[in-house]
């Protein structure tokens, strides 16, 4: 798990038996991994910053798509659900994110501008799993 040093220092000793914790900056890290998981965090960032984060993640992936390497994103894909309650929640979360951060919730077209080899699975209520293949 990669996070800022003060976050890692506060949790690493409590859970060192279940995960490896690394202090660093997601905008500039040099780790190698089979996969990278980004959960509910890209919506906090501008498109330009998301692209920078995704490039760092792509560089961290050791195997190719055929060997199982991927970036897994769990986030909102606006319009991915046909259920009215999920669509309403997606728009409400988008409004909240827009007020609190420089980011936004994105629809599939906006995600497509950041990467082209992907699969979206709307399986988590108002959130989706996006598998990106570097």
UniProtKB/TrEMBL annotation:
GO molecular function: O-methyltransferase activity
PROSITE patterns in UniProt: SAM_OMT_II (PS51683)
Keyword terms, alphabetized: Methyltransferase, S-adenosyl-L-methionine, Transferase
Xref: Pfam families: Methyltransf_2
Record-level GO BP terms: methylation
Domain O-methyltransferase C-terminal: 2-117
Protein name (Swiss-Prot/TrEMBL): O-methyltransferase C-terminal domain-containing protein
Organism: Oryza sativa subsp. indica
């Amino acid at each position: 798990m990669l996070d800022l040093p003060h976050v890692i220092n506060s949790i690493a000793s409590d859970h060192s038996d279940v995960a490896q914790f690394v202090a660093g900056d997601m905008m500039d890290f040099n780790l190698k991994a089979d996969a990278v998981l980004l959960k509910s965090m890209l919506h906090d960032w501008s498109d330009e910053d998301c692209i920078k984060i995704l490039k760092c993640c792509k560089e961290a992936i050791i195997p190719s798509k055929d060997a199982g390497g991927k970036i897994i994103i769990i986030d909102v894909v606006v319009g991915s659900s046909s259920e009215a309650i999920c669509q309403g929640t997606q728009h409400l979360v988008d409004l909240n994110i827009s007020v609190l951060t420089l980011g936004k919730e994105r629809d599939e077209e906006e995600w497509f501008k950041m990467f082209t080899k992907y699969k979206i699975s709307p399986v988590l209520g108002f959130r989706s799993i996006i598998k990106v293949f570097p």
